[in-house]
Fold:
Amino acid sequence: MKTQVICILCVFGLMAFAQQPDRRANMNQQLLNRISQSVFTIYKERDIWRGSGFVIGANGICVTNYHVLKDALSSEVKMKNGEKFNIRNIIAFDPKVDLVVFRLDLPRNKTLLPLKIENHFPRPGEDVINISAPAYSMLEQTIANGNVSAVRKHKDHGYIIQHTAPTSSGSSGSPTFNMRGEVIGVESFSIAAPASGRTIVQNINFAIASRKLTELLQASKGKRPIELLDMTDNPLITRNVKLAMLSYAAKNQSQAIEILKTENRNNPKNYLAYEFLGWIYYHAGNYAAGSDAYLKANKISHRAENLAGYAINYSAAARASGDKALFQEAYRWLNESVHMKPDPSVYYEMACLLYDYTVKYRHLNPKQLANALNSVNLSLQYYNKPAQFRFYTDWACITRGLIKEALGEQADALNDYEYAIKLDPRDYRGFHARGKLLGLHFKEFSSGLKDAAMALNLLDNRYYTLKADVLHTQALIYYKWYGTSGDDAHLQAAIKKLEQAYSIYNLKAYLDEKQRIIDEAYNQDDEGDEIPFEGLSDEEDEGFVPTAGLP
Structure:
Protein backbone atom coordinates (compact mmCIF):
# COMPACT_ATOMS: atom_id res chain seq x y z
CA MET A 1 0.00 0.00 0.00
CA LYS A 2 1.35 3.39 -0.97
CA THR A 3 2.26 5.50 2.01
CA GLN A 4 2.74 9.20 2.23
CA VAL A 5 4.52 11.55 4.62
CA ILE A 6 2.19 14.22 5.99
CA CYS A 7 2.49 16.95 8.60
CA ILE A 8 0.89 16.00 11.87
CA LEU A 9 -1.04 19.25 11.79
CA CYS A 10 -2.81 18.18 8.61
CA VAL A 11 -3.96 14.79 9.89
CA PHE A 12 -7.66 15.22 10.62
CA GLY A 13 -8.17 11.81 12.16
CA LEU A 14 -6.25 10.71 15.22
CA MET A 15 -3.82 7.83 14.80
CA ALA A 16 -4.66 5.03 17.15
CA PHE A 17 -2.77 5.29 20.40
CA ALA A 18 -1.32 1.82 20.85
CA GLN A 19 -0.90 0.59 24.39
CA GLN A 20 2.65 1.17 25.54
CA PRO A 21 4.30 -0.18 28.68
CA ASP A 22 4.67 2.46 31.41
CA ARG A 23 8.25 3.72 31.16
CA ARG A 24 7.76 6.82 33.31
CA ALA A 25 9.36 4.97 36.18
CA ASN A 26 12.63 5.66 34.34
CA MET A 27 12.06 9.43 34.78
CA ASN A 28 11.76 11.05 38.17
CA GLN A 29 8.19 12.30 38.66
CA GLN A 30 9.47 15.62 39.92
CA LEU A 31 11.52 16.03 36.73
CA LEU A 32 8.51 15.14 34.60
CA ASN A 33 6.38 17.75 36.35
CA ARG A 34 9.12 20.38 35.92
CA ILE A 35 9.69 19.94 32.19
CA SER A 36 5.95 19.89 31.47
CA GLN A 37 5.77 23.49 32.76
CA SER A 38 7.73 24.57 29.67
CA VAL A 39 5.46 22.95 27.07
CA PHE A 40 2.54 24.97 25.70
CA THR A 41 -0.29 24.98 23.16
CA ILE A 42 -0.23 27.48 20.28
CA TYR A 43 -3.30 29.31 18.99
CA LYS A 44 -3.63 31.48 15.92
CA GLU A 45 -6.00 34.42 15.51
CA ARG A 46 -9.54 34.06 16.90
CA ASP A 47 -8.53 31.16 19.15
CA ILE A 48 -7.85 28.78 16.28
CA TRP A 49 -5.79 25.92 17.65
CA ARG A 50 -2.57 25.21 15.76
CA GLY A 51 -0.12 22.95 17.60
CA SER A 52 2.42 22.74 20.39
CA GLY A 53 5.76 24.32 21.33
CA PHE A 54 8.25 24.70 24.16
CA VAL A 55 10.48 27.20 26.00
CA ILE A 56 14.26 27.27 25.49
CA GLY A 57 15.06 30.66 27.04
CA ALA A 58 14.05 32.22 30.37
CA ASN A 59 13.35 35.51 28.58
CA GLY A 60 10.59 33.86 26.51
CA ILE A 61 12.54 32.29 23.61
CA CYS A 62 10.50 29.38 22.26
CA VAL A 63 10.38 26.83 19.45
CA THR A 64 7.76 25.19 17.25
CA ASN A 65 7.38 23.90 13.69
CA TYR A 66 7.29 26.45 10.89
CA HIS A 67 4.10 24.93 9.52
CA VAL A 68 2.37 25.64 12.86
CA LEU A 69 2.83 29.41 12.42
CA LYS A 70 2.85 29.50 8.61
CA ASP A 71 0.79 32.47 7.35
CA ALA A 72 -0.34 33.31 10.89
CA LEU A 73 -1.65 36.84 11.36
CA SER A 74 -1.38 36.78 15.14
CA SER A 75 -0.70 34.08 17.69
CA GLU A 76 -0.59 33.35 21.39
CA VAL A 77 0.55 30.47 23.56
CA LYS A 78 -1.15 28.89 26.54
CA MET A 79 1.09 27.51 29.27
CA LYS A 80 0.32 24.54 31.51
CA ASN A 81 -0.78 26.86 34.34
CA GLY A 82 -3.23 28.65 32.03
CA GLU A 83 -1.16 31.78 31.45
CA LYS A 84 -1.35 33.19 27.93
CA PHE A 85 1.29 35.23 26.11
CA ASN A 86 1.32 36.76 22.65
CA ILE A 87 4.16 36.15 20.23
CA ARG A 88 6.32 39.30 20.19
CA ASN A 89 8.59 38.61 17.21
CA ILE A 90 10.35 35.97 15.14
CA ILE A 91 14.05 35.34 15.84
CA ALA A 92 14.74 32.72 13.17
CA PHE A 93 12.83 30.44 10.83
CA ASP A 94 13.53 27.87 8.14
CA PRO A 95 10.55 26.58 6.13
CA LYS A 96 12.60 23.78 4.57
CA VAL A 97 13.70 22.41 7.94
CA ASP A 98 10.25 23.22 9.42
CA LEU A 99 11.50 25.11 12.47
CA VAL A 100 10.80 28.58 13.85
CA VAL A 101 12.26 30.29 16.93
CA PHE A 102 10.25 33.15 18.43
CA ARG A 103 10.07 35.40 21.49
CA LEU A 104 7.02 35.80 23.70
CA ASP A 105 5.80 39.17 24.90
CA LEU A 106 6.33 38.63 28.63
CA PRO A 107 5.41 41.09 31.40
CA ARG A 108 8.32 42.90 33.05
CA ASN A 109 10.32 40.71 35.46
CA LYS A 110 8.47 37.60 34.21
CA THR A 111 10.69 34.62 33.40
CA LEU A 112 9.98 31.10 32.19
CA LEU A 113 11.68 27.80 32.86
CA PRO A 114 13.80 26.85 29.81
CA LEU A 115 14.35 23.28 28.67
CA LYS A 116 17.80 21.88 28.07
CA ILE A 117 18.76 20.95 24.49
CA GLU A 118 20.71 17.75 23.85
CA ASN A 119 22.57 17.67 20.53
CA HIS A 120 23.82 14.09 20.75
CA PHE A 121 21.75 11.54 18.91
CA PRO A 122 19.86 8.97 20.99
CA ARG A 123 20.50 5.27 20.51
CA PRO A 124 17.95 2.92 18.91
CA GLY A 125 15.86 1.30 21.64
CA GLU A 126 16.33 4.22 24.01
CA ASP A 127 13.19 5.32 25.84
CA VAL A 128 11.65 8.70 24.94
CA ILE A 129 8.75 10.85 26.11
CA ASN A 130 6.71 13.37 24.15
CA ILE A 131 4.56 16.08 25.75
CA SER A 132 2.01 17.82 23.52
CA ALA A 133 -1.62 18.84 22.94
CA PRO A 134 -3.07 16.28 20.51
CA ALA A 135 -6.71 15.91 19.52
CA TYR A 136 -7.30 19.54 18.51
CA SER A 137 -5.93 20.89 21.82
CA MET A 138 -8.60 19.09 23.86
CA LEU A 139 -5.93 16.91 25.45
CA GLU A 140 -3.32 19.40 26.55
CA GLN A 141 -0.26 18.12 28.40
CA THR A 142 -0.59 14.59 27.05
CA ILE A 143 2.46 12.48 27.93
CA ALA A 144 3.25 9.75 25.40
CA ASN A 145 5.88 7.04 25.92
CA GLY A 146 7.86 5.11 23.34
CA ASN A 147 11.36 4.32 22.19
CA VAL A 148 13.75 5.33 19.45
CA SER A 149 13.38 3.19 16.34
CA ALA A 150 16.21 4.78 14.32
CA VAL A 151 18.08 7.99 13.56
CA ARG A 152 17.84 8.77 9.86
CA LYS A 153 19.13 11.39 7.43
CA HIS A 154 16.46 13.45 5.67
CA LYS A 155 17.14 15.63 2.64
CA ASP A 156 15.32 18.65 4.11
CA HIS A 157 15.23 18.20 7.87
CA GLY A 158 18.74 16.89 8.34
CA TYR A 159 18.85 14.16 10.94
CA ILE A 160 15.46 12.94 12.15
CA ILE A 161 14.60 10.65 15.04
CA GLN A 162 12.11 7.91 14.28
CA HIS A 163 10.28 6.87 17.44
CA THR A 164 7.15 5.09 18.68
CA ALA A 165 5.81 7.65 21.20
CA PRO A 166 2.24 8.12 19.89
CA THR A 167 1.60 11.59 18.46
CA SER A 168 -1.24 13.02 16.42
CA SER A 169 -2.90 16.19 15.20
CA GLY A 170 -1.73 18.92 17.57
CA SER A 171 1.63 17.38 18.47
CA SER A 172 3.46 19.40 15.80
CA GLY A 173 6.21 21.50 17.35
CA SER A 174 6.25 19.63 20.65
CA PRO A 175 9.45 18.46 22.41
CA THR A 176 10.58 14.84 22.48
CA PHE A 177 12.68 14.10 25.58
CA ASN A 178 15.19 11.53 26.69
CA MET A 179 14.85 10.12 30.20
CA ARG A 180 17.05 12.92 31.60
CA GLY A 181 14.45 15.51 30.58
CA GLU A 182 16.57 16.88 27.72
CA VAL A 183 15.02 17.83 24.38
CA ILE A 184 16.42 15.53 21.71
CA GLY A 185 14.04 16.55 18.93
CA VAL A 186 11.13 18.70 17.73
CA GLU A 187 8.09 16.67 16.65
CA SER A 188 7.26 17.38 13.03
CA PHE A 189 5.53 14.65 11.01
CA SER A 190 4.26 11.09 10.88
CA ILE A 191 3.86 8.42 8.26
CA ALA A 192 0.23 7.59 7.67
CA ALA A 193 -1.64 5.51 5.14
CA PRO A 194 -5.33 5.48 4.24
CA ALA A 195 -7.35 2.66 5.67
CA SER A 196 -7.72 -0.06 3.06
CA GLY A 197 -9.28 -2.79 5.12
CA ARG A 198 -5.88 -4.44 5.55
CA THR A 199 -3.29 -2.22 7.20
CA ILE A 200 -3.09 1.19 8.84
CA VAL A 201 0.38 2.55 9.60
CA GLN A 202 0.75 3.39 13.30
CA ASN A 203 3.38 4.86 15.61
CA ILE A 204 5.92 5.78 12.95
CA ASN A 205 6.64 9.33 14.08
CA PHE A 206 9.53 11.69 13.42
CA ALA A 207 11.19 14.47 15.39
CA ILE A 208 13.75 16.85 13.89
CA ALA A 209 16.98 16.22 15.80
CA SER A 210 17.88 19.06 18.20
CA ARG A 211 21.18 19.57 16.38
CA LYS A 212 19.28 21.34 13.59
CA LEU A 213 17.65 23.67 16.11
CA THR A 214 21.06 24.58 17.52
CA GLU A 215 22.36 25.32 14.01
CA LEU A 216 19.36 27.60 13.34
CA LEU A 217 19.99 29.50 16.60
CA GLN A 218 23.66 29.98 15.77
CA ALA A 219 22.83 31.24 12.27
CA SER A 220 20.43 33.82 13.73
CA LYS A 221 23.07 35.55 15.87
CA GLY A 222 23.50 39.18 14.91
CA LYS A 223 20.28 39.25 12.85
CA ARG A 224 17.38 41.50 13.76
CA PRO A 225 14.09 39.84 14.71
CA ILE A 226 11.09 40.35 12.44
CA GLU A 227 7.38 40.61 13.16
CA LEU A 228 5.14 37.58 12.74
CA LEU A 229 3.35 39.35 9.88
CA ASP A 230 6.63 39.54 7.96
CA MET A 231 7.42 35.82 8.24
CA THR A 232 6.62 34.02 4.99
CA ASP A 233 8.05 31.61 2.45
CA ASN A 234 5.69 32.96 -0.22
CA PRO A 235 6.61 36.40 -1.64
CA LEU A 236 2.97 36.93 -2.58
CA ILE A 237 1.75 36.67 1.03
CA THR A 238 3.09 40.09 1.93
CA ARG A 239 2.51 42.15 5.03
CA ASN A 240 -0.29 44.03 3.28
CA VAL A 241 -2.02 40.81 2.27
CA LYS A 242 -1.85 39.59 5.88
CA LEU A 243 -3.10 42.94 7.21
CA ALA A 244 -6.01 42.72 4.77
CA MET A 245 -6.78 39.23 6.09
CA LEU A 246 -6.76 40.61 9.65
CA SER A 247 -9.10 43.45 8.69
CA TYR A 248 -11.48 41.12 6.88
CA ALA A 249 -11.48 38.71 9.84
CA ALA A 250 -12.40 41.71 12.04
CA LYS A 251 -15.36 42.37 9.66
CA ASN A 252 -13.74 45.59 8.40
CA GLN A 253 -14.34 44.87 4.75
CA SER A 254 -13.69 48.39 3.44
CA GLN A 255 -10.33 48.58 5.19
CA ALA A 256 -9.31 45.19 3.76
CA ILE A 257 -10.18 46.41 0.26
CA GLU A 258 -8.13 49.60 0.65
CA ILE A 259 -5.11 47.66 1.96
CA LEU A 260 -5.27 45.30 -1.02
CA LYS A 261 -5.57 48.21 -3.43
CA THR A 262 -2.41 49.67 -1.87
CA GLU A 263 -0.66 46.34 -2.33
CA ASN A 264 -1.74 46.23 -5.99
CA ARG A 265 -0.37 49.74 -6.57
CA ASN A 266 2.95 48.95 -4.87
CA ASN A 267 3.24 45.42 -6.24
CA PRO A 268 1.18 45.14 -9.45
CA LYS A 269 2.45 41.60 -10.09
CA ASN A 270 0.97 40.24 -6.87
CA TYR A 271 -1.87 38.22 -8.37
CA LEU A 272 -2.72 36.75 -4.95
CA ALA A 273 -3.76 40.22 -3.75
CA TYR A 274 -6.05 40.53 -6.79
CA GLU A 275 -7.49 37.08 -6.04
CA PHE A 276 -8.27 38.04 -2.44
CA LEU A 277 -9.76 41.32 -3.59
CA GLY A 278 -11.99 39.49 -6.07
CA TRP A 279 -13.06 37.06 -3.36
CA ILE A 280 -14.05 39.93 -1.01
CA TYR A 281 -15.98 41.71 -3.76
CA TYR A 282 -17.82 38.48 -4.61
CA HIS A 283 -19.00 37.98 -1.02
CA ALA A 284 -19.98 41.65 -0.86
CA GLY A 285 -22.16 41.22 -3.94
CA ASN A 286 -20.04 43.58 -6.06
CA TYR A 287 -19.69 41.10 -8.91
CA ALA A 288 -18.46 43.60 -11.50
CA ALA A 289 -15.52 44.60 -9.30
CA GLY A 290 -14.93 40.94 -8.39
CA SER A 291 -14.78 39.94 -12.04
CA ASP A 292 -12.35 42.77 -12.78
CA ALA A 293 -10.02 41.74 -9.92
CA TYR A 294 -9.96 38.09 -10.98
CA LEU A 295 -9.40 39.08 -14.61
CA LYS A 296 -6.34 41.13 -13.58
CA ALA A 297 -5.05 38.19 -11.55
CA ASN A 298 -5.53 35.89 -14.53
CA LYS A 299 -3.59 38.21 -16.85
CA ILE A 300 -0.61 37.96 -14.47
CA SER A 301 -0.68 34.28 -13.49
CA HIS A 302 -2.88 32.50 -16.07
CA ARG A 303 -4.04 30.25 -13.23
CA ALA A 304 -7.18 28.20 -13.76
CA GLU A 305 -8.40 29.33 -10.34
CA ASN A 306 -8.44 32.96 -11.47
CA LEU A 307 -10.45 32.17 -14.58
CA ALA A 308 -12.86 30.23 -12.35
CA GLY A 309 -13.17 33.22 -10.02
CA TYR A 310 -13.88 35.49 -12.97
CA ALA A 311 -16.52 33.11 -14.36
CA ILE A 312 -18.23 32.67 -10.98
CA ASN A 313 -18.43 36.45 -10.41
CA TYR A 314 -19.81 36.90 -13.92
CA SER A 315 -22.38 34.17 -13.26
CA ALA A 316 -23.42 35.71 -9.94
CA ALA A 317 -24.00 39.03 -11.70
CA ALA A 318 -26.19 37.27 -14.28
CA ARG A 319 -28.19 35.46 -11.59
CA ALA A 320 -28.78 38.74 -9.77
CA SER A 321 -29.90 40.64 -12.89
CA GLY A 322 -31.87 38.09 -14.89
CA ASP A 323 -30.44 39.50 -18.11
CA LYS A 324 -30.58 36.84 -20.84
CA ALA A 325 -27.45 38.03 -22.67
CA LEU A 326 -25.52 38.12 -19.40
CA PHE A 327 -26.64 34.55 -18.63
CA GLN A 328 -25.37 33.31 -21.97
CA GLU A 329 -22.01 35.07 -21.57
CA ALA A 330 -21.63 33.78 -18.00
CA TYR A 331 -22.32 30.23 -19.13
CA ARG A 332 -19.68 30.59 -21.84
CA TRP A 333 -17.07 31.63 -19.26
CA LEU A 334 -18.02 28.80 -16.90
CA ASN A 335 -17.62 26.31 -19.73
CA GLU A 336 -14.25 27.76 -20.67
CA SER A 337 -13.12 27.53 -17.06
CA VAL A 338 -13.97 23.83 -16.58
CA HIS A 339 -12.41 22.97 -19.91
CA MET A 340 -9.20 24.59 -18.67
CA LYS A 341 -9.41 22.74 -15.34
CA PRO A 342 -12.38 20.77 -13.93
CA ASP A 343 -13.47 22.46 -10.72
CA PRO A 344 -16.43 21.38 -8.53
CA SER A 345 -17.21 24.97 -7.52
CA VAL A 346 -17.55 25.94 -11.20
CA TYR A 347 -19.80 22.96 -11.98
CA TYR A 348 -21.88 23.92 -8.95
CA GLU A 349 -22.15 27.54 -10.12
CA MET A 350 -23.12 26.29 -13.58
CA ALA A 351 -25.99 24.32 -12.08
CA CYS A 352 -27.15 27.33 -10.05
CA LEU A 353 -27.00 29.56 -13.13
CA LEU A 354 -29.14 27.21 -15.20
CA TYR A 355 -31.61 26.62 -12.37
CA ASP A 356 -32.11 30.35 -11.75
CA TYR A 357 -32.52 31.01 -15.46
CA THR A 358 -35.17 28.35 -15.93
CA VAL A 359 -37.05 28.59 -12.63
CA LYS A 360 -36.42 31.97 -10.99
CA TYR A 361 -36.70 33.90 -14.26
CA ARG A 362 -39.30 31.53 -15.77
CA HIS A 363 -37.49 30.51 -18.95
CA LEU A 364 -39.09 27.13 -18.42
CA ASN A 365 -37.01 24.76 -20.52
CA PRO A 366 -36.63 21.12 -19.37
CA LYS A 367 -33.47 20.72 -21.49
CA GLN A 368 -31.69 23.39 -19.46
CA LEU A 369 -32.88 21.79 -16.22
CA ALA A 370 -31.39 18.50 -17.42
CA ASN A 371 -28.12 20.35 -18.09
CA ALA A 372 -28.32 21.84 -14.60
CA LEU A 373 -28.77 18.37 -13.11
CA ASN A 374 -25.78 17.07 -15.06
CA SER A 375 -23.65 19.97 -13.83
CA VAL A 376 -24.52 19.49 -10.17
CA ASN A 377 -23.85 15.75 -10.49
CA LEU A 378 -20.40 16.56 -11.90
CA SER A 379 -19.74 18.85 -8.94
CA LEU A 380 -20.76 16.13 -6.48
CA GLN A 381 -18.38 13.65 -8.14
CA TYR A 382 -15.58 15.93 -6.94
CA TYR A 383 -17.12 17.07 -3.65
CA ASN A 384 -17.59 13.50 -2.47
CA LYS A 385 -13.92 12.58 -2.92
CA PRO A 386 -11.37 14.95 -1.35
CA ALA A 387 -11.84 15.78 2.32
CA GLN A 388 -11.43 19.52 1.69
CA PHE A 389 -14.61 19.60 -0.41
CA ARG A 390 -16.87 17.78 2.04
CA PHE A 391 -17.99 21.06 3.63
CA TYR A 392 -19.76 22.08 0.41
CA THR A 393 -21.42 18.76 -0.40
CA ASP A 394 -24.63 19.66 1.44
CA TRP A 395 -24.99 22.83 -0.65
CA ALA A 396 -24.69 20.84 -3.87
CA CYS A 397 -27.17 18.24 -2.60
CA ILE A 398 -29.74 20.93 -1.82
CA THR A 399 -29.28 22.46 -5.27
CA ARG A 400 -29.70 19.05 -6.88
CA GLY A 401 -32.87 18.55 -4.89
CA LEU A 402 -34.28 21.85 -6.12
CA ILE A 403 -33.51 20.89 -9.72
CA LYS A 404 -35.15 17.49 -9.26
CA GLU A 405 -38.23 19.17 -7.81
CA ALA A 406 -38.45 21.35 -10.90
CA LEU A 407 -38.19 18.21 -13.03
CA GLY A 408 -41.01 16.59 -11.08
CA GLU A 409 -38.75 14.09 -9.25
CA GLN A 410 -39.93 15.01 -5.74
CA ALA A 411 -39.10 11.68 -4.07
CA ASP A 412 -35.48 11.89 -5.22
CA ALA A 413 -35.37 15.54 -4.17
CA LEU A 414 -36.45 14.56 -0.67
CA ASN A 415 -33.58 12.07 -0.46
CA ASP A 416 -31.13 14.85 -1.40
CA TYR A 417 -32.47 17.18 1.29
CA GLU A 418 -32.27 14.48 3.94
CA TYR A 419 -28.70 13.67 2.97
CA ALA A 420 -27.82 17.37 3.14
CA ILE A 421 -29.26 17.58 6.66
CA LYS A 422 -27.26 14.52 7.66
CA LEU A 423 -24.07 16.13 6.33
CA ASP A 424 -24.63 19.42 8.14
CA PRO A 425 -27.53 19.56 10.61
CA ARG A 426 -26.56 23.16 11.47
CA ASP A 427 -27.40 24.47 7.99
CA TYR A 428 -30.88 25.94 7.78
CA ARG A 429 -31.17 25.35 4.03
CA GLY A 430 -31.62 21.59 4.24
CA PHE A 431 -34.47 21.92 6.74
CA HIS A 432 -36.05 24.76 4.77
CA ALA A 433 -35.98 22.84 1.49
CA ARG A 434 -37.29 19.62 3.05
CA GLY A 435 -40.01 21.44 4.97
CA LYS A 436 -41.21 23.23 1.87
CA LEU A 437 -41.34 19.98 -0.11
CA LEU A 438 -43.09 18.04 2.65
CA GLY A 439 -45.67 20.74 3.24
CA LEU A 440 -46.45 21.85 -0.30
CA HIS A 441 -46.05 18.67 -2.32
CA PHE A 442 -46.49 15.71 0.02
CA LYS A 443 -49.06 17.62 2.15
CA GLU A 444 -47.33 16.50 5.35
CA PHE A 445 -48.17 19.87 6.87
CA SER A 446 -47.04 19.30 10.47
CA SER A 447 -43.67 17.88 9.38
CA GLY A 448 -43.17 20.69 6.90
CA LEU A 449 -43.89 23.36 9.51
CA LYS A 450 -41.60 21.62 12.00
CA ASP A 451 -38.72 21.67 9.51
CA ALA A 452 -39.37 25.34 8.70
CA ALA A 453 -39.34 26.17 12.42
CA MET A 454 -36.00 24.38 12.75
CA ALA A 455 -34.68 26.44 9.84
CA LEU A 456 -35.77 29.64 11.61
CA ASN A 457 -34.01 28.59 14.82
CA LEU A 458 -30.78 27.98 12.91
CA LEU A 459 -30.81 31.47 11.36
CA ASP A 460 -29.15 34.35 13.16
CA ASN A 461 -31.23 37.55 13.35
CA ARG A 462 -28.72 39.24 11.06
CA TYR A 463 -30.09 37.15 8.19
CA TYR A 464 -33.48 38.85 8.25
CA THR A 465 -34.12 38.36 4.52
CA LEU A 466 -33.63 34.62 4.88
CA LYS A 467 -35.83 34.48 7.97
CA ALA A 468 -38.54 36.32 6.05
CA ASP A 469 -38.25 33.77 3.25
CA VAL A 470 -38.74 30.88 5.68
CA LEU A 471 -41.73 32.66 7.25
CA HIS A 472 -43.15 32.96 3.74
CA THR A 473 -42.74 29.20 3.31
CA GLN A 474 -44.62 28.62 6.58
CA ALA A 475 -47.40 30.87 5.30
CA LEU A 476 -47.70 28.84 2.09
CA ILE A 477 -47.84 25.57 4.06
CA TYR A 478 -50.55 26.90 6.38
CA TYR A 479 -52.55 28.14 3.40
CA LYS A 480 -52.19 24.78 1.66
CA TRP A 481 -53.39 23.14 4.87
CA TYR A 482 -56.34 25.51 4.98
CA GLY A 483 -57.28 24.46 1.43
CA THR A 484 -57.39 20.83 2.61
CA SER A 485 -58.97 21.28 6.04
CA GLY A 486 -61.07 24.42 5.65
CA ASP A 487 -59.92 25.36 9.17
CA ASP A 488 -59.89 29.16 9.53
CA ALA A 489 -57.10 28.84 12.13
CA HIS A 490 -54.76 27.72 9.37
CA LEU A 491 -55.78 30.66 7.18
CA GLN A 492 -55.16 33.11 10.02
CA ALA A 493 -51.78 31.47 10.72
CA ALA A 494 -50.82 31.94 7.06
CA ILE A 495 -51.79 35.63 7.20
CA LYS A 496 -49.86 36.10 10.45
CA LYS A 497 -46.70 34.51 9.02
CA LEU A 498 -46.79 36.86 6.01
CA GLU A 499 -47.23 39.83 8.34
CA GLN A 500 -44.22 38.66 10.35
CA ALA A 501 -42.19 38.27 7.15
CA TYR A 502 -43.08 41.82 6.11
CA SER A 503 -42.27 43.19 9.59
CA ILE A 504 -38.66 42.01 9.42
CA TYR A 505 -38.17 42.60 5.68
CA ASN A 506 -40.41 45.21 4.06
CA LEU A 507 -40.88 43.41 0.78
CA LYS A 508 -44.13 44.41 -0.91
CA ALA A 509 -44.48 40.92 -2.34
CA TYR A 510 -45.38 39.64 1.15
CA LEU A 511 -48.29 42.09 1.39
CA ASP A 512 -49.37 41.16 -2.12
CA GLU A 513 -49.27 37.47 -1.17
CA LYS A 514 -51.32 38.20 1.94
CA GLN A 515 -53.97 39.99 -0.11
CA ARG A 516 -54.00 37.19 -2.69
CA ILE A 517 -54.75 34.44 -0.19
CA ILE A 518 -57.41 36.56 1.51
CA ASP A 519 -59.11 37.16 -1.84
CA GLU A 520 -58.82 33.49 -2.82
CA ALA A 521 -60.09 32.31 0.54
CA TYR A 522 -63.17 34.48 0.36
CA ASN A 523 -63.74 33.52 -3.25
CA GLN A 524 -63.10 29.84 -2.37
CA ASP A 525 -60.68 29.64 -5.30
CA ASP A 526 -57.59 27.77 -4.22
CA GLU A 527 -55.54 27.16 -7.35
CA GLY A 528 -52.47 25.85 -5.51
CA ASP A 529 -48.97 27.16 -5.18
CA GLU A 530 -46.83 24.84 -7.27
CA ILE A 531 -45.45 25.62 -10.73
CA PRO A 532 -46.28 22.81 -13.14
CA PHE A 533 -43.26 21.68 -15.12
CA GLU A 534 -45.02 18.82 -16.83
CA GLY A 535 -45.67 19.28 -20.53
CA LEU A 536 -43.16 22.08 -21.11
CA SER A 537 -41.84 22.29 -24.63
CA ASP A 538 -38.25 22.82 -25.69
CA GLU A 539 -39.02 26.31 -26.96
CA GLU A 540 -35.48 27.36 -27.72
CA ASP A 541 -31.99 26.30 -26.79
CA GLU A 542 -31.25 29.76 -25.30
CA GLY A 543 -27.69 29.56 -26.59
CA PHE A 544 -26.48 27.32 -23.76
CA VAL A 545 -24.00 24.54 -24.48
CA PRO A 546 -24.91 21.16 -22.92
CA THR A 547 -22.47 20.08 -20.20
CA ALA A 548 -22.67 16.34 -20.82
CA GLY A 549 -19.44 16.29 -22.76
CA LEU A 550 -17.39 18.28 -20.27
CA PRO A 551 -14.41 16.59 -18.61
Confidence is low (pLDDT under 50) at residues 1-25, 193-200, 525-551. The chain has 18 helices and 13 strands. The first helix runs from residue 29 to 36. The two ends are 29 Å apart (CA to CA).
